[in-house]
Structure formats: structure tokens, C-alpha cells
Design brief:
Radius of gyration: 28 Å
CATH architecture of the largest domain: 2-Layer Sandwich
Strand content: 15-25%
Number of domains: 2
Structural class: alpha+beta
RNA sequence: GCGGGCGUAGCUCAGCCCGGAGAGAGCACCAGGUUGUGGCCCUGGGGGUCGUGGGUUCAAAUCCCAUCGCCCGCCCCA
């Protein structure tokens, strides 16, 4: 069994689970389109350096979670740990930003992080996300969040909280970070070991530490709000008030900082109490400096991503659909039954028949179990007369009809 | 990367603490009862290296060690 085991943290999606996945994928497609977002697909792998530059050299993602390998040409390659870097790279590589000043894009697919597996956390996981390039204005932040909310609404997911914060401009953010470092240095020895490390590597993250030892200092720490200029405040205020205005409940969380280095201004997270430790099932924010830092024009952008596996944990059950509409059973005439099935398929019906040479009884049991509503029974005697039997599995009503007239009879049988 | 819990049939689990006679139950699956008719019922049947490896013992599902996997918390994030 151990050699017949999927790689740790990797999961099969079995036929019975696929209806729910397809439902999600369909909603992603239709709601994105409704907002005018276009799909983009980028490779599963990129040069590792891309993520060092975008996500940040001091983040855990780059530090210890990337799947890295050297290809046969000696290049350092990474399995994508997220999508934004690849999307920005594609935009620049193909010069798309010269063709249009605004791009609305969405993506969906697997991503990889070498983490300890847990419920809702896998090494191969799926993300849906959307990015809007070309607007520095808060209207685009609001649109991106509304897109996310529209998807949740369409899926029937209602028990969640949307948390919102701002990190200001890169300059303000840097200034704030320096203030934070200065503040926490004073009490360094009293902080948790993790936070002492964060102080050097990623000080903002001290703010969302769960460690009890850190809490009193976090409460007294300087607030980002005080480091912001007028424009940043107005930007945040606009986002907040217009979300409230359209009835989206928002919780301002001044300690929400998120783990990627490229965020500026608006950051947000969707969290659900149903998920346990991995309670964030979506998140995003503005990243105005990223495109330029890649060597492109100074194009502002905002985006977000959902963790699809976590969304799935929140998704209400779907009623299963039967694999076929018709079961063509044979009573001593298997070849004729196969012929009848092919006839029905040619007419567009989903029809299956027995492949195990089983008894009629077993065939009907199978049909019932599969939830197939109508059986076409091809019996030797009736076939001699050019007829077949139709049987409604719901109530056992059964009748004989000429094979010639099968299609109208089937149509009628399926109405019941 | 750290701490804890759990791995027995396809699934849910009992048995393990207090080692010993055939490795069990329910559900699922297959067949028969109806030699051409599903669901309910009855009868029978198939299916298990007790996660894996090692150790202790006359004897290990049961005790010990290691290892792998899953789950929970930390961490991280979607």
C-alpha cells in the first residue's frame, strides 16, 4: 500500500467529487465573464528567480515552500507557488500593456507549496484568481472585491467575513515598517521566539502573531493609519465606504498584513469560522509597484485569489447527477441491445448497457443504483417481432414498442 | 520545521489497556430465492500483508522502537 500511495500532500479528485469541482469551475467562468474578465493560462513552471523578485526573498513561500529543481539545461526552475508573478511576466513578455491600458484577467489551476499538509492545506492545491491592471483608483479595488463576492453568492457561500486593511504606498509602508521595528526592538527580549525572527526578516508579520506573549505589545504598537498620507487615507476610505454602500459587510482589521511583499494600499482576506486553522479561503490586495519592479511600465494593479479546496469545504452539497439517461438491458439479446444503445447515442441520448454479461435482474439493479430513470429492455422474443420494452424505473410501468418508433417513446418516457 | 492524536475489509468502526483457541460487525459488493424484470425482505458468498519495518515473547492486531500516511494545534497561507 505504501508504494501505491499518492505523493504526500497530493490528492486525487475522484469521479464522485468532480461534479462539485465542475460547478465551481463553471461559476468562475460565468461570473468572471459577467464582469468582463478574460481568462489567461500560464505555465506551471517559471524560472525560480521570478518568485524571489515578486513574492519577496524573505517570505516563507520563497524561503522554504517552493518546489525547486534544476532542468537538464542547468536552469533553476520552480513549480508555481502562486499565479500573480506568472501573469505579470506574461503581460510584459507579450507586450500586452502596450496594446491596452486596462486588463481584466482571471486564472484557474494548480499551484504548489511544500508545506505540512493539513485540512484545507495541500502541497498541490488549486487557485482561482483575478487581476485588474491599469487603474490606480479605488474603483478597481472595489470591483475586484465585488467579483469575489459575486462568486461566493452564486455558490451559495454565506458564512464568511471580509477583512480589510491598507498598507499605504511603498514609501509609507517602509516608514511604518521602520517604526514598527523600532518599537518592537525596545521589547525584543519579551517577544516570542518566532516574532524575534520576524523582526529581522518580515516585521509586519508580528502583527498577526497568535502567540500570547506578543499580544500586549501588538496592542500598543504604532498603527499603520498614523503613517499614511492624505491620498492613502482617501483611497482606503473610498474602498470601505463603497463596499458598505453595496451591502458587503466589511470588517476593518488593522493587523491584517498578508505574507507577500508586493502588496500596497488595500489588502483583504475572506475568512470562515468553518475552516479551522486554515480559516482564510481567499485574499488579495493592490500591488502597484510589482509590474515596474519587473522592469515594466509603472502599471498599478489589484488582484485576489481563492483557495479552491477551501471553497469546496464551504460549498453546500450538490445533488448527484446520474451517469446516463437510459440503461439498455439485454434479455438474451446482447448484440441487439448494443445496437439499440448505439442508435440512442446517435440520437443524442446518454445510454449505457451491460458489459459483464450479467442477468437481466443484475442489469436492472445496476440501472436503479445508477439512478437511471428509464430502462430499454431488449428481449429476444420481442426483438424477433421488431420490438423492444421500455420500463420506467420510478414506478415499474412498462410497455412494448416497435424499434422503429423508439425515439418518440423514449422522449415520452423521459418526461415522467 | 515543532508539539499532540489516530492508522484493523471498499466505507464507518469494535477488538488493543489486562498478549494466547477460528480476525469480527454494520453498510457496500456478488449470487440465489423469481431458469426474462430493479428498489423491500430472506439465504448464502467473496473480500483483510490488522499502515510498513524491526524488536520483546513459547505466542503480537494487542507490548516496545523506528518509519510512512492522515487529522489537530503552532507555523504559513489560498
Amino acid at each position: 500500500m505504501s508504494d501505491l500511495q499518492a505523493v504526500r500532500g497530493m490528492h486525487d479528485i475522484l469521479p464522485e467529487e468532480l461534479p462539485r469541482w465542475r460547478r465551481l469551475e463553471e461559476v468562475f467562468r460565468t461570473i468572471s465573464a459577467r464582469f468582463g474578465y478574460e481568462e489567461i493560462r500560464t505555465p506551471l513552471v517559471e524560472y525560480a528567480h521570478l518568485y524571489v523578485r515578486s513574492v519577496g526573498p524573505d517570505t516563507d513561500i520563497v524561503h522554504k515552500e517552493m518546489y525547486l529543481f534544476t532542468d537538464r539545461g542547468g536552469e533553476q526552475i520552480a513549480l508555481r507557488p502562486e499565479f500573480t508573478a506568472g501573469v505579470v511576466r506574461a503581460l510584459l513578455q507579450h507586450g500586452l500593456l502596450h496594446r491596452r491600458s486596462l486588463w481584466r484577467l482571471w486564472y484557474y489551476g494548480p499551484a504548489f507549496r511544500y508545506e505540512r499538509p493539513q485540512k484545507g492545506r495541500y502541497r498541490q492545491f488549486h487557485q482561482y484568481g483575478a487581476e485588474c491592471f491599469g487603474s490606480p483608483y479605488p474603483e478597481s479595488d472595489v470591483e475586484i472585491i465585488q467579483l469575489a463576492v459575486a462568486i461566493l453568492k452564486e455558490l451559495g457561500i454565506t458564512t464568511y467575513e471580509l477583512q480589510l486593511n491598507t498598507l499605504g504606498t511603498p514609501v509609507e509602508r517602509r516608514r511604518y515598517q521602520q517604526e514598527l521595528v523600532a518599537f518592537f526592538r525596545e521589547v525584543r527580549s519579551q517577544l516570542s521566539a518566532e516574532s524575534q525572527q520576524r523582526l529581522e526578516r518580515n516585521p509586519l508579520r508580528i502583527l498577526d502573531s497568535k502567540h500570547p506573549a506578543d499580544q500586549p505589545f501588538i496592542e500598543r504598537a504604532p498603527q499603520i493609519w498614523d503613517s499614511l498620507g492624505r491620498e492613502s487615507r482617501e483611497h482606503f476610505q473610498y474602498v470601505y465606504t463603497s463596499l458598505r454602500a453595496v451591502g458587503i459587510p466589511v470588517q476593518v482589521n488593522p493587523r491584517l498584513v498578508r505574507g507577500l511583499d508586493y502588496y500596497t494600499h488595500t489588502v483583504f482576506e475572506f475568512i470562515s469560522p468553518q475552516l479551522g486553522a486554515q480559516n482564510a479561503f481567499g485574499g488579495g490586495g493592490r500591488y502597484d509597484g510589482l509590474v515596474e519592479s519587473f522592469g515594466g511600465p509603472p502599471v498599478p494593479a489589484v488582484g485576489f485569489a481563492f483557495g479552491v479546496e477551501r471553497l469546496l469545504l464551504l460549498l453546500p452539497e450538490q445533488p448527484g447527477q446520474p451517469v446516463a439517461q437510459l440503461y439498455v438491458a439485454s434479455a438474451g439479446a446482447p448484440e441487439a441491445a448494443y445496437q439499440v444503445a448505439m442508435h440512442l447515442r446517435a440520437a443524442g441520448y446518454r445510454a449505457v448497457c451491460d458489459l459483464q454479461r450479467r442477468s437481466l435482474k443484475a442489469q436492472l439493479r445496476e440501472a436503479d443504483r445508477l439512478g437511471i430513470p428509464v430502462a430499454v429492455i431488449v428481449g429476444e422474443a420481442e426483438w424477433q417481432r421488431g420490438n423492444v420494452l421500455l420500463r420506467l424505473l420510478s414506478n415499474g410501468v412498462q410497455w412494448e414498442c416497435p424499434f422503429q418508433d423508439l425515439l418518440p417513446h423514449v422522449r415520452q418516457a423521459l418526461v415522467h
